[in-house]
Structure prediction request, 335 residues.
Amino acid sequence: VSAQQGKTLFFPAGTYLCRQLRPVSGTHLHLDRGAVVQAMNCSPENYMSDDNVKTRKFIYIKDADNVKITGRGIINGNGRSLRTTYGDQARMRLIMAVNSSNILMEGVMLQDPGSWNTQILKCRNVAIRNVKLMNDIGLSNTDGFDPDATCNLLIENCFAYCSDDNVAVKTTGYGGYIGDVDGITVRGCVFLTKKSSLKVGTETRGNVMRNIVFEDNDVLESDRGMALYVSDGAVFERIGYINNRFERNYPDAKQAGIHFVVNRRRPDSKLGKMTDVLVRDCSFEVPFPKHSAIKYPGPGTGIEVRIENLKIGGRRVLSLQEAEIEVQNASVSVR
Prediction:
């Protein structure tokens, strides 16, 4: 189903079972309080598109400008039901925007995706405000927000409860859409996850990912609070974690407050690096069970990090030893 250009598609209170929705340029989807737009439990093939982006998706914004999704209603991907019926064939994005610009999402609840909740791929000028993400934490691979090869994106005053990463800024190369990341801000949010909360990577198939800021967020639970992973050769520049608060650890694979790692996905992969990474005025209410890590495989120094006014358990730490950070081939200052 495609909305008409320049029109508002209004959903009053009620439940609407739909197949794939395709907002075009100038479209405004507005969900009134009590409205539920839900993916039908039908063949996953109904959520494919006939273009180069083969990932299944419920709401699909492609090659569009000036699209809005607003209101106090719910967009429900019916992920649990679909994956129970169709297995991995039903791993479907709830919202996917591709090669589009000037997108606004505000107020809605995005619920129960079959895979990643919201992927923003090769887009420009995107604002996501006051949005609630409620994923089924019993389903694997249900990321929250995935800005992908995108520039100038704001995630503000949002809530996300996920089984996988809350925010993962990345460059995947899906559908051949590849590019640099520049200008991502995540601020004023509340997050819970079984995996990484404030993350850049792991997919880093572009050249540069720069000017990414996580500011004034509350992470109630996570396996890793701050995570930077370069596996495909990109360069990270000017990454900032400013005034973020972390409450408790979810005991998954790493159990580390800070985890910044450069590696090679394959033996022949290009080796990336991280420069000008700043962690300032962040705090962990209690220490995470395992040591943090900042590691580069070498040769040489491939990661540069400044840590300023980091508090763990209410106490400011002034050394790597006090912060319990393991460092390899990296320049890390703590003050």
Observations:
- The chain has a mean pLDDT of 96.
- The two ends are 56 Å apart (CA to CA).
